[in-house]
Amino acid sequence: MNTKISIVVPTHNRSFSVERFLESLKKQTLSRDRFSIYIAMNTKDVELESRLEKWKDEFTISWGATGELGVNKARNLGIINSSSDIVLLFDDDMELVEPDTLEQHIRIHADENVKGLGGGCRMPSNATLPALAYHIIGMSWMLRYAKENGETPYLLGGHASYKKEIFKETMFNSDIAFGAAETEFNLRLYNAGKVLKFEPEIRPIHHNDVSFRNFIKKAYLQGYNGATRRATHVSPDPVMKYEKALNKILSIENPRKWQIPGLKFYFWLYAWASDLGAKVCQNQECSQIQLKTLKWLARIK
């Protein structure tokens, strides 16, 4: 059976990133007649549309816009416009490295019990310290929740594939715009008995441009959104403690010695900002410095 893949790339005002991703797709060994691409814009981007026209000779590619901000709205638009057996979601700042990335997704989805598959990612050599810290936190979090057989309640939104059939039952929650927006969706699938798998060895490069301010905002939003669905959360593997998972990812990424103290600071900062988000969500009392941080966050676009 020649399984086909629909690749969906949500994006907002990042034409350069989209083209870098498309360029990396040229190296894939999966034949071109077995995958198509849909670029899901939040708002109409005339510059990007002009650039995409040039890619029609290379790939089966189409695009559209939701007219609103929100990554889940863009994901849903792409899914609606997909017709293949598997829907593969990539963030627009991903760059595929292994030439068999698409084939690996197809191979694992050959197990009819697997409904969702999440890969890992790696950072570029020039990654900023906050971007590297955010990556390590995310990957160690994924590692904590994955069982020995790879089954997990959580997948990375920027690199995950699903059998198209599941979208007949449910879609991404379009009311969640940002801040681990895919987490609620994956939890719904997991709690409904769907098998989701995590395969950390499928690792595209993630050109995640995270500034100091955006690092704090991401942590805050994830804490806030996490608190709204705490009742549906599952417990991590009791053997894979946070520190153990963190150290495992650190050993894989192998940061330079001078980066370690800075990374530890960002690990603390993430915990502090996500706790702030949870407190606000639950209407708990905040300290003066937390209130000042909230005012500062409100000014970050």
List the helices and strands and how they pair.
Elements: E1 5-11, H1 15-25, E2 35-41, H2 46-53, E3 61-65, H3 71-80, E4 86-90, E5 94-95, H4 101-109, E6 114-119, H5 129-145, E7 159-163, H6 183-191, E8 195-199, E9 205-206, H7 212-228, H8 242-253, H9 260-281, H10 288-297
Parallel strand pairs: 1-2, 1-4, 2-3, 6-8
Antiparallel strand pairs: 4-7, 5-9, 6-7
Helix pairs in contact: 1-2, 5-8, 5-9, 7-9
- Write out the CATH superfamily name: Spore Coat Polysaccharide Biosynthesis Protein SpsA, Chain A
Straight-line distance between termini: 46 Å
- The overall average pLDDT, rounded, is 87
Share of helical residues? 40-55%
Helix count, DSSP H or I runs of 4 or more residues: 10
* Coarse structural class: alpha/beta
Please mark out the parts with pLDDT under 50 across 5 or more consecutive residues, or reply none: none
Shape: globular
Read across the widest sheet, the strand sequence of neighbours is 3-2-1-4-7-6-8
CATH class: Alpha Beta
Order of helices and strands: EHEHEHEEHEHEHEEHHHH
The tally of domains stands at 1
The count of strands amounts to 9
CATH fold field value: Spore Coat Polysaccharide Biosynthesis Protein SpsA, Chain A
Rg, Cα atoms, Å: 19 Å
Q: How would you characterize the largest beta sheet?
A: 7 strands, mixed
- The CATH architecture would be Alpha-Beta Complex
Strand content: 5-15%
